[in-house]
Description:
The complex is a heterotrimer of chains A (224), B (47) and C (240). With 47 residues, chain B is mostly helical.
Amino acid sequence: MSLVRSASTVLAKELRIELRTHDLTNTIFFFVLMIAGLFSFAFSPTAAESRRILPGLVWMAFFFAGTLMLQLCFVREQTNDTLAALRLAPIDPFAILLGKILANFAFLAATEIIFVPIFSVFYNVSVGEVIGRLLLVLFLGTFGLAVVGTVFSAMAAQARMRELLLPLLLLPVLAPVLIAGVEATGELLAAGHSVGQMWVSMLAGFDVIFTTATWLLSGYLVEE
Amino acid sequence: MRNFWSILSAYLAAWAIFFVYSATVGRRLTRLEEELRRLKSRTGRDE
Amino acid sequence: MMLGKAAWNLAWWAVAIGLGFAGYAIFFIAPRELTMGSIQRIFYFHAATGISAYLCFFLSFLASIGYLASRQPRWDWMAVSTAEVGLAFDTVVLITGPIWAKPVWGTWWVWDARLTLAFIVELLYIAYLLLRRLSTEMDRRGMISAVFGIFAFLDVPLAYFSVRWWRTEHPGPVIAGGPNSGLDPRMWHVFAFTWLALLALMILMIRDRYRLEAMRQTVSEWKAEEELGVEMAEGKEVTQ
Lengths: 224, 47, 240
């Protein structure tokens, strides 16, 4: 089977499970909503302040939501003992990872589409004119999060205290994404409405480098 | 020399870290060597 | 072990004396820097330690690739030894940096590019050691940590550029900068000597840490054999 076909089979399986249970999406929706409220209580920002802190807040909220969600990605396979079956399947190991990466990306991207307007209302920052570019920046960063997060979720699944371990592995590696994402979002929300090419290429570069690394190393990660 | 104490404390802090780290590695090594000797005598290896 | 125990002890003493002499040179031979004054003397071991730390992480990256390519446990031992020693060196950078920053910038900590990078790298390799410590599937641990080691090192240049574009207040690299940025020859000599002494220290530390990891392996193998022997003596059915 070709890579695309087998990856989309895995993706379809992940989406089907999610559509049946809604476990992941419900949890992260509630999580992001809660963060949106809590930050406002913690800082009670004025209009000018919210313009300044909103980019960081949005990224932190999605990062933590993503970390929470990614815990389950391989643990779920383990508790149901289905990972062995996946490993035995006659497909490219990268296809398994890619399917899961795309599924995690889809869940997070859906959350972002819903929550960008909500953040904009809560913090009184208008995003109407830049919504397309804003989502592009968010999706680029989220894809990086999904790639590295899925790989690390596979690594942490076998460890003790894995719920604690995953964020500790993931967040330091994502530091460049956080910096680039927050800066790019900040530029978009500021008066200029334009986004620096530098930050976008940093986000894209992160995605390309780690997708390639995952592709090259997938055989070691998925093997029995 | 201005800032002499800053320089000296930075210098000493660096050596303290190197020393403490090397000492912990050395201690772990000694402990393992002892364990190895114990295992050797018990299993009667002639290595 | 190619060298006897006595030779390695001698090497430790030589490094200790070399580092002592480097200290003397830093305080008494190196000339006073004009704009920053004496505080610049921290530079000699701060920068030399920093370079050595990144060298360690690079070696760890190579060892991780070596392990994936060959599956020889010794590459895994090398990867963890270099990562841990690199972490010790990076810790020194993180401590001497603020001591230098206080008189020059007026605050202990500034989110300057290079200091931030050292901080991110510290977090990355602490995560690496944690992953190793918390892994339960010992036969897959080497592979998993090798993949993480590769990911962590690939992240370093990205982190470097992101923090550099983000903000930089750090004095530029004076060694290989523009035409007027060179070091005084005497400063150069002191720096080169300090760095060589630190490199020698780094090699000795890596060697000790490597021996520790190799010995751990032997101990766990022997223990397993011993347990197997006891079970067989007790007449239990031994599987595997």
